[in-house]
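Lab notebook, bench 4. The sequencing result for the construct came back, and we need a structural model before the next group meeting so we can plan mutations. Quick request posted to the team channel:

Model the 3D structure of this chain.
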Amino acid sequence: MYHSETKDYVKASIREDMNLENGNIRVLICTNVAGMGVNFRGVRQIIHYGLPRDMDTFVQQMGRAGRDGTLSHEIILMKMIGSHLKTVEPFLLNLCKNTEQCRHKLLCDAYLCKHEQIIPKHNCCELQCSCGSVDCRVKHPLLRDTGKLVDEEESRHQMNTDISDDDKRILRLQLKCLQSNLKDESDDMFSTLSDSAIDDIMINCSVILKPADVLIYATCWAYPVAVQVCEILNNVIGDRDLSESEGEEVAGLE
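Done. Here's the predicted structure in token form:
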């Protein structure tokens, strides 16, 4: 491992081995300490487990691979839902959540650079490959499937439900405020938020990802109210309704 607490002599040994043509190290787990200014020879794959907070850091880390001009891969393994995403720069989030636009183009747009199409498209990103072959030899093996590792229902069970007591208190307080505001706005019982609905939301908050889930897991009947509930959940404990397909996703740049 290569991080800030790694002893200097260990770092030196790692750098020496990583710069040998036939070194012994095949996998190096590291933090941003191995970012800008640290050049390792022959790195062909960078795998991010989660995202850094900003695009600059991401690009520096990604840039440790392929420094000799050889085709290399950047793989991102991440949860597309969770409070950690609130601190991630929007450009970087969009790069990962995007399923239609060329990822190389999005990178260029983030830095106001002119985008030039990479030919063949195999060498750009997994979204640009158009060969139609499931067993495309150029595309990274992790990306030869649809890119989705778990379905939505399985994802719900894998989510981290360890919501802090402080967040729970804030969540309940904001839901009570919403309840009060809705009562002032309408006498229609179907457009309000009952105490039992708030209790249901508190119990199921970790699996409520979009407005439709509020209607399923809580005694709430009005979709506009469900949207407001999701906005509160998003502000307090993390992103809701990020995309049509939640879960753990793989994104790749080649």
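Strands lie at 45-49, 73-79, 248-253.
Will bring this to the meeting.
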